[in-house]
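User: Sequence recovery, please. Input:
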């Protein structure tokens, strides 16, 4: 990973929203580098800041939200600090052209009164200097690449004539039509059934090999993470609480919140046992948080968690966790029994005994 070129560097990012006369501190000091050609999954509960964090990469924050501190350096032809771009015209060439987004619901991403072909070609013509004929040829090529059979016949169809999985393929085709450097996928498989979900994930990985883009994948589904991610960033209350490779996060997690997320995997439920759930609720981001934000829900909470925020401890060259349990002075705590030997448990769940 260290040999790869940094494509996007986020440093000490803070984002606040003005809501009914109060300030909500949604992102609280995130720093994270993204490398060329890698896949990074951003995981966490609803409200943890996943979507807000990645919206800052494409200038898609709501009108009442703003970056109040930090930088987002995008190393394209020349470095650009995305946190300094405030006007729509400043984003015109970047958004869609260099940084593209695939949203959760393809039906709301597509215009129901425009043909599929028109929606793809309009994006190509906006970001590339080409004729309508060239744009059509490029659109047909992209439709074929994302698995739309007989694209010439489907070119003039409307979104309602496509299935959910086909609509999501078209959204991916639009996003990739100008060969962006970064593809942000905001839970793009949530609205799809399991079979189609697997097809979309496979498609994203295959196209990544061909085009070399970096994937930033937002999800709450850890099963999706295992299928697509090189690295995983676990978010809680607007902060990264654990960061590591997919293998480190799944098989050597260090933060109690990550333990809780993994324990909630439906695949770990057995017989008549109840599925594990995390007690309590996340803290209000309207208020100043003292200590570790996960402390009230943490069964392994130490006294210091209530009064002092932990630093980000380094576990390995690629693995970091924000918990006092990693302090050399802390008592030794083992991860829950439920997620020990997680690798073998998941292999058995999928019928791959002895692998």
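Assistant: Recovered sequence (355 residues):
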């Amino acid at each position: 990973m260290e040999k790869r070129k940094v494509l996007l560097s986020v440093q000490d990012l803070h984002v606040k929203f003005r809501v009914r006369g109060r300030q909500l501190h949604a992102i609280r000091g995130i720093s994270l580098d993204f490398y060329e050609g890698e896949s990074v999954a951003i995981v966490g509960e609803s409200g943890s800041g996943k979507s807000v964090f990645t919206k800052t990469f494409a200038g898609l924050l709501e009108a009442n939200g703003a970056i109040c501190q930090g930088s987002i350096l995008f190393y394209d032809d020349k470095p650009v600090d995305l946190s300094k771009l405030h006007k729509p015209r400043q984003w015109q060439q970047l958004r869609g052209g260099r940084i593209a987004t695939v949203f959760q619901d393809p039906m709301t991403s597509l215009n129901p009164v425009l043909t599929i072909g028109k929606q793809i070609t309009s994006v190509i013509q906006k970001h590339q200097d080409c004729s309508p004929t060239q744009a059509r040829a490029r659109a047909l090529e992209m439709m074929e690449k994302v698995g739309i059979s007989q694209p010439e016949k489907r070119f003039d169809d409307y979104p309602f004539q496509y299935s959910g999985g086909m609509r999501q393929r078209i959204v991916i085709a639009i996003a990739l039509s100008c060969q962006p450097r970064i593809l942000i996928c905001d839970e793009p498989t949530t609205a799809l059934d399991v079979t189609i979900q697997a097809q979309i994930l496979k498609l994203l990985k295959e196209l990544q090999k061909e085009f070399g883009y970096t994937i930033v994948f937002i999800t709450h589904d850890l099963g999706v993470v295992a299928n697509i991610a090189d690295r995983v960033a676990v978010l809680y209350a607007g902060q990264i609480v654990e960061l590591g490779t997919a293998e480190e996060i799944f098989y050597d997690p260090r933060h109690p919140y990550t333990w809780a997320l993994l324990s909630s995997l439906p695949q770990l439920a057995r017989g008549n046992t109840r599925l594990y759930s995390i007690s309590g609720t996340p803290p209000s981001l309207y208020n100043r948080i003292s200590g570790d934000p996960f402390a009230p829900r943490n069964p392994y909470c130490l006294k210091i968690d209530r009064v002092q925020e932990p630093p980000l401890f380094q576990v390995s060259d690629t693995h970091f966790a924000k918990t006092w349990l990693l302090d050399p002075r802390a008592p030794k705590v083992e991860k829950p029994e439920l997620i020990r030997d997680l690798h073998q448990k998941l292999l058995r769940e999928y019928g791959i005994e002895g692998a």
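The first strand starts at residue 6 and ends at 19.
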